[in-house]
Write a structure and sequence with these properties.
The protein is built from seven helices and 14 strands. It is of the alpha/beta class. It has a single domain, classed as Ribonuclease Z/Hydroxyacylglutathione hydrolase-like (Metallo-beta-lactamase, Chain A, 4-Layer Sandwich). The strands form two sheets. It has a seven-stranded mixed sheet with strand order 6-5-4-3-2-1-14. Helix 6 runs parallel beside helix 7.
């Protein structure tokens, strides 16, 4: 099972020479099993180049099938849905899974297409077959993978943490979560129990930026604590704050490595990671 990182920022994209190594696009991941099954995580701005790359994998001919798991509905994880090229090609099938805090996920996503903010006007104008699924805690049926969802707090939205397994490997994706002040959310630790890779929100330093109090998200220290309590074999930091330069993220990674008793990495746009 391999993970391709098309976007690893949170909140909004970053641009400039000081952001080149880690990349500037917001959240979008591609996961491919050894048998060729594919799923995606999020429709952040990284989904725009991801969508173009899929055109050579059957989606350009209208023969693509793609499950997309949303970690939550904030713009940094959904804004590229109206600009994801495969949704405009008849014959493609896109299944979107997520949760929306008491609302229908379809209705929340429809706001992205409002004619005042988007020229597409409605999801109904997309040419592919788009099916939106509201998830609850527990297994989610997706061909080629074992998937489990866990709804978690993230501001006034509902985050979803995901556990994905294939080929005897497992990854937990916890990229939109507000842990309690006293320590990691117990259910998130259970979700990540003994995974080969924990991909965790680490937008903030342990002493925290003032943005964190308003924007939500986790510190690097909290990510390390979750990995330790869960027994995750490796930890990868992601959902990087957009004002953190490459040098800032190097320092954040070094902080996490000092605190951790297991390998810690930081997600970089454009990289492929073998779980």
């Amino acid at each position: 099972m391999k993970i391709r990182f098309w976007g690893v920022r949170g909140f909004y994209p970053a641009s400039g020479a000081q952001y080149v190594r880690y990349g500037g696009n917001t959240a979008a991941l591609e996961i491919v099993s050894d048998g060729g099954a594919r799923l995606a995580i999020d429709f952040g701005t990284g989904a725009v180049p991801f969508g173009r790359a899929l055109l050579g994998a059957g989606f350009g001919a209208g023969k693509g099938v793609l499950p997309v798991l949303l970690s939550h509905t904030h713009l940094d994880h959904t804004a590229a849905m109206p600009f994801f090229v495969p949704v405009f090609i008849p014959g493609n099938r896109i299944d979107v899974f997520g949760a929306a805090n008491g609302h229908k996920l379809y209705d929340v996503l429809e706001a992205l297409f409002d004619p005042h903010v988007c020229p597409i006007n409605s999801q109904k104008n997309l040419n592919a077959t788009i099916t939106v699924h509201d998830v609850v805690d527990g297994p989610v049926a997706i061909d080629g993978f074992e998937v489990r969802a866990l709804r978690v707090p993230h501001g006034r939205a509902t985050g979803v943490a995901w556990r994905i397994a294939a080929d005897g490997k497992s990854v937990a994706i916890v990229t939109a979560i507000d842990h309690p002040a006293g320590g990691p959310l117990a259910a998130a630790v259970d979700l990540a129990r003994d995974v080969d890779l924990l991909l965790h929100d680490a937008a903030w330093h342990s002493n925290s930026d003032h943005y964190g109090k308003r924007w939500g998200g986790a510190t690097a220290a909290m990510a390390v604590a979750v990995a330790r309590l869960a027994g995750a074999r490796r930890l990868m930091l992601t959902h990087h704050a957009p004002h953190h330069t490459d040098r800032d993220l190097d320092a954040l990674l070094a902080e996490a490595q000092t605190l951790s008793d297991r390998p810690v990495l930081a997600a970089m746009e454009g990289e492929t990671f073998d779980v």
